[in-house]
Write a structure and sequence with these properties.
The chain is α+β, with helices and mostly antiparallel strands. The chain has 5 domains: 1-15 and 37-140, Hypothetical protein af1432; 149-229 and 388-419, no CATH class; 233-377, Beta Polymerase, domain 2; 511-658, no CATH class; 666-747, ACT domain (Alpha-Beta Plaits, 2-Layer Sandwich), CATH 3.30.70. 47% of the residues lie in helices and 17% in strands. It has a 6-stranded mixed β-sheet with strand order 1-2-3-6-5-4. The chain has a 5-stranded mixed β-sheet with strand order 12-16-14-15-13, with helices on one face. Strands 18-19-17-20-21 form a 5-stranded antiparallel β-sheet, with helices on one face. β18 (694-702) and β19 form a beta hairpin. α9 crosses α17 and α10 (170-184) packs parallel to α12. The chain starts with a helix and ends with a strand.
C-alpha cells in the first residue's frame, strides 16, 4: 500500500533541499535546534512512521482521512506559499511521534476541514465515526458565529477547546501539535500577527503543555514565542550563548568525564548528558533577578539517567561526594512529584572553578514522562489496572475544568480562571491527616480550603498554620501543615477574590456570591408579589397550583423561586406577575392592580440599593424604582433625580416605607462650613464619633478667606440620629454652618 501512496502522491510533495536533518552527534546539545523546513512532506513519509507502531489496517484508515483532507484543501496555500495539505500532514507527524492512535491521527489530518473547506461534520461522522467528528469539532474555532469583539470570539473558542479536552485528552494533544507546527512556520506571517500569536502561545498553549507534562513541547513553544515577541533580544542572547558555548566547551567536557568516572566507580549503569538552558529560560532569569548575561552562571546543566529509583539516590550521593552541594538547592520530585507528574532529583553543586552546575537525576521511565508527559501514555484504561500518576493528575485537572465551567457563565472569566491554574510553580502542603496537597505558588490557606472541599471553603473563617493561628489570606509555603477553621454560619466574602490564587477557589466564591444575591433577589421578589396580592385582598395561599404552573410556563421559569428572583432583580414588575397569576379568577379580569407599599429594613442585601444622589435614611419619605436587572433602587421622596425619572416611566415605581426598626446604619452626605484653624478636623471627627456615627469619606474644599467646607459622608441610623450629630457639631466654635446635601440641593436639618 505504501508504494501505491508513493506513486500517487510522491511527486507532488518532493522533498526540498531544506528538509529536516538529524542533529550532529555530541554530548553537549542545544535544547532545541531550529526546526528544518517542512515545505515538502508527503503522506508516504508519515506512513513510514506509522508503520513502526500501527497495524496496516490503521495506516490505511489514516490514509482515508488524508484523502478527505487533501481533497478539501485542494488549491489552498499557506502564507509561505506551500500547499496547505503540508500543514495537516506535519501535525499528524508530530502526533505520530507521540504514538497517538488512529482516531487522533485522523483528527490531526482533518483538524482544519470544518473551518476552511466545504467538508461538514456529517461527512466526517459518516466516514470516520462520531469520536473523530467530536475530536475535529473540539479543534475547530467558532468562526461561524457572530461575536461583538475578536477577544470574545477567542475566549469562546478557547473554552470550547478546553471543555472538549476535558472529555477527551486527544483534543489538546492534537491542538498542541497544530500550534507547534504553526509556530515553527510563523516566519511567513506579518510582524504584528506573529507577535499576537506568540503572546497567545506564551499565555495559553505553553502553560497547557507544561501542565500536561509535555516539557519538550513546552520549552520549544516558549523559545519560539520569545523569538517572535522580542526578536532583537532573542538574537542578541543567541549570539551570546553561542560565544559562551565555545568558551565553556572545556568545562563541560571536564564535568562529563568526572561524573561518568565517579558513577562508574559506584557501580551504577548510567547515561550522562549535558544540556543547555533555553534562551527564554536565560532571559527570564535575567529579568526576574536583574542580572546581566555574564552573571547567569547556570547556563549548562547535566542529566543523569539510571535504571531505578534507588539508583537515583545513589547517583545523588556520588555527585555530592564529587562536588560540594549548594545549600537549599536540592529538590526531591521523586518523593513528591510535580502537579504534571514530573519526577526527578534536582541538585545544584559547585563545579570546577566554583561554577554552579545543576544536575537532574531520573530513571528512564521518568525521563520518558518528563519529555512526553501525558502523551507518553495518554490512553486512559477503561477496565482493570491502576492509573498512572500522570493520568490521575491530568484527570483531576480536567475535572476541575468542568467544575470551573459549571460555576462560570462568561467565557472570558472561564479563561481567566484556567490561566490562573496553568502557572507551573507549585507548593506542597499537608493536611492534619498527613495528605499532601499541591497548589500554585502564592496560594493561600483559603485556596487549600477550596481544594479540599467546596463546603469547607464556603464556611472557612480562619486557619492554623503549623499549629499557630493565621488568617485565610496567609500565603502557604512548601511543608506547611494547614488546618482550616470553619463556622456553619459563615459565608464567602467578596474581598476573598482579591487574594485567592486558584481558579477553583475563584469560581466557587463567585458562584456562592451569585447564589446569595439570587436568594436575596428571590426573597425581595416574593415580598413584592405577596404585598401586591394582599392589597387586592388575595392571600398568597389562595393561588392554585394550576395558576402557578400556567404562569411559570408563560414566563419560561421552572419554579416560583426563579420567577420571584426576576421580580427582585427588576426584570419583571410585580403587578404584571400578579395579573398573570390572577387570570381567570372571577372579578379580576378587568380589575386594575394598584401599587403596594413595601417595607424596607436595610437587611435585604444586594437586592435593595440606596441611591447615591440623595442617600435616603430612615425618617425620610422614600420611593423606589424597580431597575431592569438591578433590583430595587430606593430614593428620597423629594429627590429631584427620582422625580424626573418617575415622570418618564411611572409604571416601574413602587411605594415603599421604612420598617419600624431598620437593621443597619445608612450613609448621609454632610457639608460643614468652618473657620480655618488648628485642630478643627479633629474636633469635628470627635463630635461625630461621640454620637456613635462613623465617617466613611471626607474631602476638604478651600474657600476664599479663612474658611473652608468639609464634605463628609457619615453613617447614621435615622434622621433623629443625624439631627443629634448636627447639634454636637454646631457647639464647636469654629463651625459656621452644617447642611445635609441631597439631590442637587442643600437642606439644613
Amino acid at each position: 500500500m505504501l508504494e501505491t501512496v508513493r506513486s500517487l502522491f510522491g511527486p507532488r510533495f518532493r522533498k526540498s533541499a531544506g528538509a529536516e536533518v538529524a542533529p550532529a552527534a555530541g554530548k553537549v546539545e542545544a535544547s532545541f535546534a531550529k526546526p528544518a523546513s517542512e515545505a515538502a512532506i508527503s503522506f508516504a513519509q508519515l506512513a513510514e512512521e506509522l508503520k513502526a507502531y500501527l497495524p496496516p489496517r490503521d495506516v490505511k484508515a489514516v490514509f482515508e482521512a488524508f484523502k478527505v483532507s487533501d481533497s478539501g484543501h485542494l488549491g489552498q496555500v499557506r502564507a509561505s506559499g506551500e500547499p496547505y495539505i503540508t500543514h495537516p500532514i506535519a501535525v499528524a507527524r508530530i502526533c505520530a511521534g507521540w504514538r497517538l492512535d488512529v482516531q487522533a491521527l485522523q483528527a490531526a489530518l482533518l483538524h482544519d476541514v470544518l473551518e476552511d473547506t466545504e467538508v461538514d461534520r456529517a461527512l466526517i461522522t459518516e466516514k470516520f465515526g462520531a469520536t473523530v467528528a467530536d475530536l475535529v469539532d473540539g479543534l475547530s474555532k467558532l468562526d461561524r458565529l457572530e461575536f461583538t469583539t475578536r477577544e470574545q470570539q477567542q475566549a469562546e473558542s478557547f473554552r470550547k477547546m478546553l471543555l472538549a479536552m476535558s472529555r477527551d485528552i486527544r483534543v489538546i494533544l492534537v491542538k498542541l501539535a497544530d500550534r507547534l507546527h504553526n509556530m515553527r512556520t510563523l516566519g511567513a506571517m506579518a510582524g504584528e500577527k506573529r507577535r499576537r500569536i506568540a503572546h497567545e502561545t506564551m499565555d495559553i498553549y505553553a502553560p497547557i503543555a507544561h501542565r500536561l507534562g509535555l516539557n519538550q513541547v513546552y520549552r520549544e513553544l516558549q523559545d519560539m514565542s520569545f523569538a517572535n515577541m522580542f526578536p532583537m533580544r532573542h538574537d542578541v542572547l543567541e549570539k551570546a550563548v553561542a560565544a559562551n558555548r565555545r568558551n565553556r566547551r572545556e568545562l563541560v567536557g571536564k564535568v562529563l568525564t568526572s561524573v561518568e568516572e565517579a558513577l562508574k566507580k559506584s557501580g551504577l549503569p548510567v547515561e550522562v548528558h549535558g544540556r543547555e538552558k533555553t534562551l527564554y529560560g536565560i532571559y527570564r532569569k535575567m529579568v526576574s533577578k536583574h542580572l546581566s548575561f555574564s552573571q547567569v552562571l547556570d547556563i549548562y546543566g547535566f542529566r543523569v539517567v539510571v535504571e531505578n529509583d534507588a539508583q537515583c539516590y545513589l547517583a545523588l550521593g556520588a555527585i555530592h561526594a564529587l562536588y560540594k552541594p549548594v545549600p537549599a538547592k536540592f529538590k526531591d520530585y521523586i518523593a513528591i512529584p510535580k502537579l504534571n507528574g514530573y519526577q526527578s532529583l534536582h541538585t545544584t553543586v559547585r563545579g570546577p572553578y566554583g561554577t554552579p552546575l545543576e544536575f537532574q537525576i531520573r530513571t528512564r521511565d521518568m525521563h520518558r514522562i518528563a519529555e512526553s508527559g501525558v502523551a507518553a501514555h495518554w490512553l486512559y484504561k477503561t477496565s482493570g489496572g491502576d492509573l498512572s500518576e500522570v493520568q490521575r493528575q491530568t484527570m483531576a485537572w480536567m475535572q476541575s475544568l468542568l467544575d470551573i465551567q459549571s460555576q462560570t457563565g462568561d467565557s472570558s472569566e472561564f479563561i481567566e480562571n484556567v490561566k490562573i491554574d496553568l502557572f507551573p510553580d507549585s507548593v506542597y502542603v499537608f493536611t492534619p491527616m498527613g495528605k499532601i496537597v499541591a497548589l500554585p505558588r502564592g496560594a493561600t490557606a483559603l485556596d487549600l480550603a477550596y481544594a479540599v472541599h467546596t463546603a469547607i471553603g464556603n464556611t472557612a473563617i480562619g486557619a492554623r498554620i503549623n499549629g499557630e493561628d493565621a488568617p485565610l489570606r496567609f500565603e502557604l509555603r512548601s511543608g506547611d501543615v494547614v488546618e482550616i477553621t470553619t463556622s456553619e454560619g459563615s459565608r464567602p466574602n467578596p474581598a476573598w477574590l482579591t487574594f485567592v490564587r486558584t481558579g477553583r477557589a475563584r469560581s466557587e466564591i463567585r458562584h456562592a456570591l451569585k447564589s446569595a444575591n439570587r436568594d436575596e433577589a428571590a426573597a425581595l421578589g416574593e415580598r413584592l408579589v405577596n404585598q401586591t396580592l394582599n392589597s387586592l385582598g388575595v392571600a398568597p395561599a389562595q393561588l392554585t397550583a394550576e395558576a402557578w404552573q400556567r404562569t411559570l410556563s408563560d414566563t419560561g421559569n421552572k419554579v416560583p423561586k426563579d420567577l420571584y428572583a426576576e421580580v427582585g432583580q427588576g426584570k419583571r414588575l410585580p403587578a404584571a406577575v400578579v395579573a398573570l397569576l390572577l387570570r381567570g379568577i372571577e372579578g379580576n379580569e378587568e380589575a386594575g392592580i394598584p401599587g403596594t407599599q413595601l417595607t424596607i429594613s436595610g437587611a435585604e442585601g444586594a437586592a435593595v440599593q440606596f441611591a447615591a444622589c440623595c442617600m435616603p435614611i430612615p425618617g425620610d419619605g422614600i420611593m423606589a424604582v424597580l431597575g431592569k436587572g438591578h433590583g430595587l433602587l430606593v430614593h428620597s421622596a423629594d429627590c429631584q433625580v427620582a422625580q424626573r425619572q418617575r415622570q418618564r416611566d411611572p409604571e416601574r415605581w413602587i411605594d415603599v416605607a421604612w420598617a419600624e426598626n431598620p437593621e443597619r446604619s445608612f450613609p448621609a452626605r454632610v457639608k460643614i462650613h468652618v473657620h480655618e484653624g488648628k485642630g478643627v478636623l479633629a474636633k469635628v471627627a470627635s463630635a461625630i464619633a461621640e454620637n456613635s456615627a462613623n465617617i466613611l469619606r471626607v474631602n476638604n474644599e478651600e474657600e476664599p478667606g479663612k474658611s473652608s467646607t468639609m464634605d463628609l459622608v457619615i453613617e447614621v441610623e435615622s434622621r433623629p440620629h443625624l439631627a443629634q450629630v448636627f447639634r454636637s457639631l454646631r457647639r464647636i466654635q469654629a463651625v459656621l454652618r452644617v447642611q445635609r446635601h441631597r439631590a442637587g440641593e442643600q437642606s439644613t436639618e
